[in-house]
Amino acid sequence: MRRMLVANYDVCTGCRICELTCSFEKEGAYNPRFARLRVVTSNDGLWSDVVVCAQCENPACLRVCPSNAIERDEEAGIVVVDPERCTACGLCAQYCHRQIIKLYPKDEGGKAYKCDLCGGRVPCVEACPTGALHLVELEEKVVLRVP
Amino acid sequence: MCYGYHERFLHVDLTSGEIGTFPPSEGLIRSYVGGRGFAAKMMWDLAAPKVDPLEPENVFMFLTGPLTGLGAPCMRSLIAFKSPLTLTYCDSYHGGFIGAEIKYAGYDGIVIYGRADSPVYLYIEDDRVEVRDAAHLWGLNTEQVYHALYKDIGGSRFEIACIGPAGENLVRFAMLDCSYHRQSGRGGGGAVMGSKNLKAIVVRGTHRLRVAEPERFQTAVRQAYADLETAPGALDFRRYATLSGIVDDSEKGILPTFNYQQASFKHAANLLGQVYEERIWLRNAACMGCSIACSKMGAIRRGKHRGTICDNVEFETTGTMGSNLGFTKAEDLQYASHLCDILGLDTMSTGVTIAFATEAYKRGILSRDDLDGIELDWGAADAVHTMIKKIAHREGIGDLLAQGVKRVSERLGGEALKIAMHTKGLETPGYETRGMPGHALGYATGDRGGDHERSYMVHYEARGALWQGRPVDSFAREGKAEIQIYTQNTTAGNDTLILCHFANEVGIETAIEMLNAATGSNLTEEDLFIVGERVWNITRLFNLREGFTRADDDLPVRVKEEPLPDPRVKGQRISQEDLDYMLDDYYRLRGWDENGVPTEEKLTALGITARSIRG
Predict the structure, then answer these.
(1) What is the CATH number of the domain that holds A5?
(2) Which of A102, B233, B393, B437 sits most deeply, having the most CB atoms within 10 A of its CB?
(3) Residue A141 covered by a domain
(4) What per-residue confidence (pLDDT) applies to B615?
(5) Closest CB from B147, B288, B299 relative to A16
(6) pLDDT tens digits for B202-232?
(7) How many domains does chain A have?
(8) Domain shared by A37 and A67, yes or no
(9) 3 state DSSP class of B342
(10) Same domain (yes/no): A63, A94
(11) CB < 8 Å to B150, chain A
(12) Which residues in chain B are contacts of A33 at CB distance < 8 A?
């Protein structure tokens, strides 16, 4: 099983309420930079989108981690970081396709952090005023079928 | 630690290159809360009296509120300066994201003095503050500035505020544009930045903002969003931006038309939100933490300007530049508004100034030669678009019009003075006031000139809202000062937070609960009202210090002498006698003397002591 957030860019207004909510949930303080998802708006302002952790089937962060600090939690359907084992090398952030696994500032230890779906409560989804975020569950591996 | 504040302002002197920080003055937070309160007190403390606004000695500030950057909905930021247009105190607000970023960078505000030798921009990343060369940005329009800086500066997201060519060229109503097209429009802040050779500021920060009582704060924030989710006004803004009421305003006789010669426009329906929704808008866009998303990004798809990507036309732009210039096509007005956005002009002052020039031309006060051969006429969109560019670049007639209606009319003299629509030099907003004397009193007493953001009595005088449970007689002068003062003080209190006016359906109780939970303070609604009153008294002192008198609390000649022709408001005007009646009432209720000077008793009661008002 795999669970993940899905963003609908067609209704995203770029308000960043999801980022603020996430940062407060995870850091107990506000700054979107520390959110586990990221709102992006095009330079011409014509669209916004939310970059979310896909809890990848094939997670680059997990594959590159030299200290096995990143694992798949099969039961929760997510990819998690064990801060005990994380050595703050930064490879995961370097190779994440979406730069959505992040590192704390160096003076705070530089360890990795990422979206863990808040145990399924997903306050970001709840706070989104337009319904641009959804929590989905994929029961099987995603397979491309050629008809 | 003081939650909600950093208790630290960034100080930059562009002349010497000196950069530092300083703490808030004693009692600033307690007595003035933030935002507009900080602006009023700090302008009083820091602005050199009688300074020429475009000289290096003028101070220019970005200020935030205690809730800016937190999870509270719709908290904005502002710029404050002495206005080159009005020579008064001025603050001007913007949405977008830059206010939050200033807080994340670790400052409650940025205070800028001086003038750089050559064009610069200010780069702020936490404690790293650099004055950087902006030679490559000078001359660019606001969109070009964004694209150039997006390319220049890598890494994580940052926010930009900049000026266009109009600010560089010191057009007296040049504005500040924030990424992406959220503006501080009024009063000429863009010209003040231009006078400092400051093209832009770029900000990003890594501070995490904590609140005093997290759970209580979260509960209040949820309530605030719930308030907005069911509020009819907010839902209307979400669908139609500020443009659902144009036809209604026209029918009520409050929609400026043809330089305020009339107050209804027969093509008003062409400028409704519904038209833009069908033909131009593509999406809703929101400012930081806003669930309303009143901004509409779109593209002009027909006519000669097709392909232009633009932010939405606002109501005030429609009232000053749409009906007021006789525009009959949404696309034409959209393009005019867009030109102002990218060239860095306040659409409102620009619209009223061109409307003035149009009427002056039709009356023979200005000749075709004076206008460089441009055939200004009602609804002549191409001529208006050309004129906007000439103003921004100060070419030919644009150089004169760049001074604003007051200065142009004084230069022309005679009949021109009778058609100049401004108070204290600020071009009047998109509401015709002759049928709303209470609202007009707000323009007359406005501390940054005649203005719709200071107080809003349209609900009471044109839309049937009750005052203390009773209907308000639209055209009466009696009893209006009391309502005006109430709305001025509550609005100023609200602006200390700085809660967006479009989100004022967040109940005041909820707003104060958010404030108290975030900062650990214990303010009441009444306290905030008194803070608002304090703001009005200290900005009054500022303007008195600059030499303003009762005579400046005036209305345009047209409002005083020309009766309106439109059906509901037929024959209405506000005579000097009416104005004097309301001013006497207003000063008395404010605790000011008959010349509009705050009395010692009033100042003492507000805690504005001789020591705290020493300049």
Answers:
(1) 3.30.70.20
(2) B437
(3) no
(4) 40
(5) B288
(6) 999 999 999 999 999 999 999 999 999 999 9
(7) 2
(8) no
(9) helix
(10) yes
(11) 43
(12) 104, 156-157, 206
Band of residue B595 on the pLDDT scale cut at 50, 70, 90 = very high
Q: Which fold has domain B9-204?
A: Aldehyde Ferredoxin Oxidoreductase;  A, domain 1 (3.60.9)
Average pLDDT for chain B:
96
Instruction: Report the C-alpha gap between B65 and B46 in whole angstroms.
Output: 19
A144 assigned to some structural domain: no
Shortest CA distance from B215: residue in chain A: A28
Residues in A closer than 8 angstroms to B299, CB to CB, are 46
Pair B427, B349: CB distance under 8 Å: yes
Q: Which of A30, A41, A124, A126 to mutate to test the interface with B (most CBs of B within 10 A)?
A: A30
Range of the domain at A87: 56-114
Taking CB atoms and an 8 Å limit, are B225 and A21 in contact across chains?
no
CA angle A86, A87, A90 (to 5 degrees): 90
Handedness of CA B64, B67, B68, B73 (dihedral sign): negative
Q: State if pTM tops 0.80.
A: yes
* pLDDT at B449 > cutoff 70: yes
A147 in any annotated domain? no
- Are residues A61 and A48 part of one domain? no
DSSP B145: H
* pLDDT computed for residue B614 by the predictor: 43
Give chain B positions within 8 Å (CB) of A50.
none
Give the A-side interface with B, CB within 8 Å.
Answer: 13-17, 20-21, 23-24, 27-34, 41, 43-48, 105, 127, 129-130
Residue A58 CB-half CA count within 13 A: 4
Looking at the structure, tell me whether residues A41 and A3 fall in a common domain. yes
Question: Are A76 and A107 part of one and the same domain?
Answer: yes
C-alpha to C-alpha distance for B111 and B122, rounded to whole angstroms:
12
DSSP lists the bridge partners of residue B449 as: B447
The yes-or-no verdict on residue B612 having pLDDT over 70 is no
Question: In chain B, where are the structural domains located?
Answer: 9-204
